[in-house]
């Protein structure tokens, strides 16, 4: 059996291991790829037995779904990683024999996610070749069909900042700019990883395809994309599927295979149309009368100015069209004023006309006042009601999907932005050989830091209302997109799907794990334990503890019982988790969670009174105060609460409360006991507490846990002494079980863990 070396290890510059071939005749334009495999850090093979041969000045297209291994080919060619086995040659020389710096100078690479650095567009293109002139930059931009777009940017052209190109709107433009940066190097081998665009932006696809065709002339090109239409003119197409070469040939040959992956992808990827404007109108349908009256008010307010102009002309009996009045009003204004006030004795008809027209002008003014007020009122009511409904829907969606969300930060620390940019875009910097350039740039930025800070604080200029509103339109559209995507996102475990047992049925608290397997989840940003063929039964009133080193699988027990995750699909009907005799997959998650109470080191109090915190989540009345006090007594926190000036009515304010962390934990324990659950889940509840707080909490748990089916993950192994049974886990499997006395007095794995804990504590 062949030993597999650690995969994807990073290649650093080494003058000892890497040397430029002695022959100067080698050109990076002929790629030979012998059977080659590469593995990810998790041990999963990314590429498996990949073979291809590419002639000079030809185009190879690599097509496949997400995760097929397209980007891994580029990472290996750029020598960011090494393959586990196999070889790849360029111009007859093994790539690993080339000096990395010299090798990358002859390559041009454009990533799927276009990487632009802080500065102007010209600066970003010049990073491809630092000595490039302005004419060469323009020529590269024309070749990649991005010159006209650059010239249209706020009148600044190539001096425009790349910060103007943020967002999904300019993905293709940013990619074409990075393509110009690669082309200006005049590479012999060009590697293009095409961006993934929404299918409804067909005009951008045509621009991208045309630009790729133009830069492919006279050089060897390898292009990767999930969309087959980009690869139609390639000399050879490589279709990857989960790291394997599924198909190989020209576009016509592959389309002839109707059941092949390439033909399937060609038919599947068709333009789509998604918009949030029409959906916002539908959401605003209940306020349709307000919107109609608001539009009518806007029409009246807008018609006031032309009406005033018509009435003003009546003073002199001037017959013009509305547009002529507006054009000539300035010319006759001063003359009209002089004529009115210079005519002291004017005729009676003139005076009557002025009086009538003046009254009508006043009426127009009143109408405009009412119309403007109505406009603000009706549109304000309709928008506020829509926002109120969206807030409720958005919050409900967040509550349903809370465990699947990940934090996304909108800003980066302002300190050392250049270093942050270098580290976040390291692969691009290395592929462009810009390490020394960034070192010099960092030194320059450090010298200019004080002056830049002073200039930044000089102040800003104010903009007009119009320029304030225009950016908000894009922000509002993006906000609507995020809100509706969150509302429409379906949680993997909907809380309302499933059955609720009949009212006459009473759950006893018996929990059974039958051959349960839990695989790691990539979509949750936390430690994810794994269980493998795990089985056990926990009877009502029994206290069972799960112990082991971090990563042993103990955290998965709590997640499975609370239905935060589902176990792997069962191979037969007997596998799964059972409440009494019912598989929990058949039960409604909201009912399951109503039978459980979870307390962990992450338990927190809310900004409410202590009484409301203990009763939180349950519909209670004033008569339940005795039950609240009894729960507090059971949690050893009643005396503390009574000692407070306002007792149980004391309002907890996060960050300002006089209640310590240990006291907050005891109140959280009282909240769990007040629910009177069938199952009590305790997850490392004494973590980060002092000895006295730990003693009080452990005593409260020992006095109350036998009233429930208790599943405990102890913070310390020594705390397992009062458990009815201890189950020891290792790598997701149960290795031993028994009482504390049995395991601690025998030559067991638990005894080794206990001794190791004692050594670490002392």
Automatic annotation (TrEMBL):
One of its GO terms (cellular component) is mitochondrial inner membrane. The keyword 4Fe-4S does not apply. Residues 292-401 form the ABC transmembrane type-1 domain. GO terms for molecular function: ABC-type oligopeptide transporter activity; ATP binding; ATP hydrolysis activity. Gene3D superfamilies: ABC transporter type 1, transmembrane domain (1.20.1560.10), P-loop containing nucleotide triphosphate hydrolases (3.40.50.300). InterPro entries: AAA+_ATPase, ABC1_TM_dom, ABC1_TM_sf, ABC_transporter-like_ATP-bd, P-loop_NTPase, Type_1_exporter. The keyword Transmembrane applies. GO terms for biological process: oligopeptide export from mitochondrion. It is a multi-pass membrane protein. Its main location: membrane. Residues 26-267, 511-756 form the ABC transporter domain. It comes from the Eukaryota. SMART domains: AAA (SM00382). It is found in: Membrane. This is ATP-binding cassette subfamily transporter B1 member 4.
């Amino acid at each position: 059996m062949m030993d597999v070396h650690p995969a994807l290890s990073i290649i650093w510059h080494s003058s000892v291991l890497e040397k430029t071939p002695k022959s100067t005749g080698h050109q990076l334009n002929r790629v030979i790829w012998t059977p080659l495999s590469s593995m990810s850090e998790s041990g999963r093979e990314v590429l498996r037995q990949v073979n291809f041969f590419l002639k000079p000045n030809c185009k190879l297209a690599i097509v496949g779904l997400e995760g097929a291994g397209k980007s891994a080919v580029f990472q290996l060619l750029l020598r960011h990683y090494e393959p586990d086995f196999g070889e790849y040659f360029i111009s007859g020389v093994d790539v690993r024999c080339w000096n990395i710096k010299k090798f990358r100078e002859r390559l041009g690479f454009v990533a799927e996610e276009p990487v632009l650095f802080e500065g102007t567009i010209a600066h970003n293109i010049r990073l491809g070749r630092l000595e490039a002139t302005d004419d060469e930059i323009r020529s590269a931009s024309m070749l990649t069909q991005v010159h006209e777009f650059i010239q249209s940017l706020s009148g600044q052209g190539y001096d425009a900042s790349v910060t103007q190109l943020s967002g999904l709107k300019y993905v293709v433009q940013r990619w074409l700019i990075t393509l110009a940066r690669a082309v200006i190097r005049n590479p012999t081998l060009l590697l293009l990883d095409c961006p993934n665009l929404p299918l409804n932006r067909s005009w951008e696809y045509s621009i991208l395809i045309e630009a790729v065709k133009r830069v492919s002339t006279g050089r060897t090109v390898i292009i990767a994309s999930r969309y087959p239409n980009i690869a139609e003119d390639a000399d050879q197409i490589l279709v990857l599927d989960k790291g394997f070469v599924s198909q190989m040939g020209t576009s016509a040959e592959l389309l002839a295979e109707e059941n092949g992956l390439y033909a399937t992808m060609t038919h599947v990827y068709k333009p789509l149309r998604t918009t949030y404007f029409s959906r916002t109108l539908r959401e605003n349908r209940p306020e349709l009368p307000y919107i109609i009256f608001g539009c009518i008010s806007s029409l009246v307010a807008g018609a006031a100015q032309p009406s005033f102009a018509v009435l003003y002309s009546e003073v002199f009996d001037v017959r013009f069209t509305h547009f002529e009045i507006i054009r000539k009003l300035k010319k006759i204004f001063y003359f009209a004023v002089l004529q009115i006030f210079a005519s002291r004795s004017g005729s009676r008809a003139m005076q009557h006309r002025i009086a009538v027209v003046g009254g009508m002008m006043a009426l127009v003014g009143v109408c405009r006042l009412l119309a403007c007020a109505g406009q603000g009122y009706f549109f304000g009511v309709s928008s506020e009601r829509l926002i109120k409904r969206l807030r409720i829907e958005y919050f409900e969606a967040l509550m349903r999907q809370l465990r699947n969300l990940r934090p996304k930060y909108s800003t980066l620390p302002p300190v050392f932005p250049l270093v942050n940019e270098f580290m976040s875009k390291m692969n691009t910097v290395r592929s462009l050989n810009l390490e020394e350039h960034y070192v010099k740039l960092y030194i320059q930025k450090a010298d200019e830091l004080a002056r830049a800070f002073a200039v930044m604080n000089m102040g800003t200029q104010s903009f007009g209302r119009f320029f304030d509103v225009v950016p908000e339109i894009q922000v509002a559209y993006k906000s609507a997109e995020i809100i509706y995507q969150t509302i429409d996102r379906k949680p993997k475990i909907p809380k309302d799907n499933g059955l609720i047992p009949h009212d006459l049925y009473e759950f006893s608290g018996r929990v059974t794990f039958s051959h349960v397997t839990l695989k790691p989840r990539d979509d949750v940003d936390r430690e994810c334990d794994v269980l493998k063929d795990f089985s056990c039964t926990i009877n009502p009133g029994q206290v069972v503890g799960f112990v082991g080193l971090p990563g042993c699988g103990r955290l998965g027990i709590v997640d499975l019982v609370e239905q935060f995750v589902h176990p792997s699909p069962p191979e037969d009907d007997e596998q799964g988790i059972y409440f009494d005799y019912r598989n929990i997959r058949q039960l409604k998650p909201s009912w399951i969670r109503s039978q459980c109470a979870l307390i962990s080191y992450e338990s927190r109090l809310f900004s409410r009174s202590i009484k409301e915190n203990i009763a939180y989540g349950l519909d209670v009345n004033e008569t339940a105060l005795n039950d609240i006090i009894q729960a507090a007594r059971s949690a050893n926190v009643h005396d503390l609460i009574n000692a407070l000036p306002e007792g149980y009515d004391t309002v907890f304010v996060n960050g300002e409360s006089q209640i310590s962390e240990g006291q907050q934990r005891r109140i959280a324990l009282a909240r769990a006991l007040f629910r009177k659950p069938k199952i009590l889940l305790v997850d490392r509840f004494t973590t980060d507490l002092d000895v006295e707080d730990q003693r009080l909490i452990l005593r409260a748990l020992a006095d109350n846990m036998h009233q429930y089916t208790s599943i405990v993950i102890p913070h310390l192994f020594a705390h397992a002494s009062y458990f009815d049974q201890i189950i020891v886990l290792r790598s997701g499997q149960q290795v031993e079980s028994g009482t504390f006395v049995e395991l601690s007095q025998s030559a067991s794995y638990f005894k080794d863990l206990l001794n190791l804990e004692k050594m670490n504590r002392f």
